[in-house]
Design brief:
mainly alpha; 8 helices; globular
Length: 226
């Protein structure tokens, strides 16, 4: 349980770095101040999530031991690709996919969570994730609206989705999905079974990914595979 909260501190730092870097790219593109401010506010939220996760780790009697994975913090440009293509790739992967599934995931993690610091962390995270998710879809719509050739943007998303979906399934519905169920005590600290993660991902695919991508001309079913 401590390992999980320690991993969450690192994951929140990673989200903070990713969002801050993506927002720099948006500034470089001359995106509207509204979109830039949304990005900066999200980076700030992620830092708060890291603090709350660290407080939960401490309340559980744990401490951070592993160093932060420096080489994983920060984004890399694709050599030769326009900035727009990298913003699209990161926006879809981290926000349209990652933050969209995060909303029902944190809803499920919070359901049986009663340990006060863990609950406080999950309350705040869940409240913010809805706005983080919306940022992703707003960003995608902005990229579609401003592209000289919107069909090329749709085609790029369609082409990148199979690998991104496979990555998500690896994270949330991998071979560990049948592993030992976690205890009631662990659930009280905001953890859940691998099988529950897989369920949330399957439901998100049907209820959000398929219809929301379809609205933008992208066929998520064709990309899902698996
Ligand atoms: Fe977060
Ligand atoms: Fe987030």
């Amino acid at each position: 349980m401590r390992d999980e909260w320690a991993a969450r501190v690192h994951a929140e730092y990673q989200s903070c770095a990713l969002t801050q870097h993506l927002t720099l790219w948006l500034i470089q593109m001359g995106a509207s101040p509204d979109l830039v401010r949304d990005g900066l506010r999200i980076a700030e939220d992620e830092l708060t999530h890291a603090e709350l996760s660290h407080a939960t780790l401490a309340a559980a009697g744990g401490a951070l031991t592993a160093p932060i994975p420096r080489d994983q913090l920060g984004l890399r440009r694709t050599p030769g690709a326009p900035l727009e293509a990298d913003v699209l790739r990161v926006g879809v992967r981290a926000f349209c996919l990652g933050e969209t599934v995060a909303v029902p995931l944190f809803t499920a993690l919070r359901r049986d969570c009663t340990a006060p610091t863990a609950r406080e962390a999950l309350d705040r995270v869940l409240r913010d994730e809805v706005r983080h998710r919306d940022f992703g879809w707003t960003l995608l719509d902005w990229l579609l609206d401003t592209a000289p050739d919107p069909d090329a943007v749709v085609a790029a998303v369609q082409a990148s989705l199979p690998d991104m979906f496979a990555e998500l399934r690896g994270l949330y519905a991998g071979p560990g999905a049948d592993a030992t169920p976690i205890s009631a005590a662990e659930r009280a600290w905001g953890l859940m079974d691998a099988a529950a993660y897989a369920d949330v991902l399957a439901t998100t695919y049907e209820r959000q990914y398929v219809p929301w991508f379809a609205e933008r001309g992208v066929d998520a079913r064709a990309a899902w595979g698996g």
